[in-house]
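User: Design a sequence. Structure:
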């Protein structure tokens, strides 16, 4: 994938697509259909605008979901980042015949939380690791993804360089935290700190509650 120096311009096929505010072919779709279409766009062409829309919509909701399942704020934020990174990597596995976009994404988050509990050897009931969907958030909590994506583009452009670089490595170059530690030549704790600070700035810019 080639990315130009123009903010939020991505190579799709043989053309360079500029993510200009106000350009969205999905405006008239039902919200759930729009989210499914965004996932298919990521799977088909690694569409960064589609991923940005999914990220800005679901990241804070996944964090809240994980906190309600017992994760503390720092772990919930880290697992939410991993869940959205899994969406980027596994978009081709999404099957709208089996689950809605929201249910699929929240199932990924739920399974990551279960894996984290196993690693910590906590004495909690461990469900069968299947892809059974979990209930999506209430309909009145869903917002238009296209409007949030435009705001996200502006918020990322305003981030300090080291924080925007950390986001790029994690979500667009598909680097793990340990890979980022090596690539940036900084401690793992600093990698996680930059990502947390970047996420906090994005939520503040988007008007999300901390």
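Assistant: Done.
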């Amino acid at each position: 994938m080639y990315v130009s120096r123009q903010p939020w311009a991505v190579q799709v096929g043989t053309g360079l697509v500029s993510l200009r505010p106000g350009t969205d072919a999905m405006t008239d779709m039902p919200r759930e259909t729009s989210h499914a279409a965004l996932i298919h766009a990521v799977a088909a062409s690694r569409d960064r605008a589609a991923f940005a829309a999914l990220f800005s919509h679901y990241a804070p909701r996944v964090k809240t979901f994980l906190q309600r399942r017992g994760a503390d704020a720092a772990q919930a934020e880290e697992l939410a980042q991993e869940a959205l990174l899994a969406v980027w990597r596994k978009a081709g596995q999404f099957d709208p015949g089996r689950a809605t976009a929201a249910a699929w994404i929240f199932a990924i988050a739920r399974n990551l939380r279960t894996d984290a509990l196993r690693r910590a050897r906590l004495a909690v009931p461990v469900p069968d690791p299947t892809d059974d969907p979990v209930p999506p958030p209430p309909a009145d909590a869903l917002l238009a993804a296209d409007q949030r994506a435009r705001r996200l583009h502006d918020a990322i452009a305003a981030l300090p360089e080291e924080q925007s670089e950390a986001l790029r490595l994690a979500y667009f170059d598909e680097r793990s935290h340990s890979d980022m530690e090596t690539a940036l030549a900084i401690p793992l704790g600093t990698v996680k700190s930059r990502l947390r600070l970047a996420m906090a700035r994005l939520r503040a810019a988007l008007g999300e509650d901390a």
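The longest helix spans residues 48-68. The helical segments are 31-45, 48-68, 73-90, 101-119, 145-157, 161-172, 177-184, 188-206.
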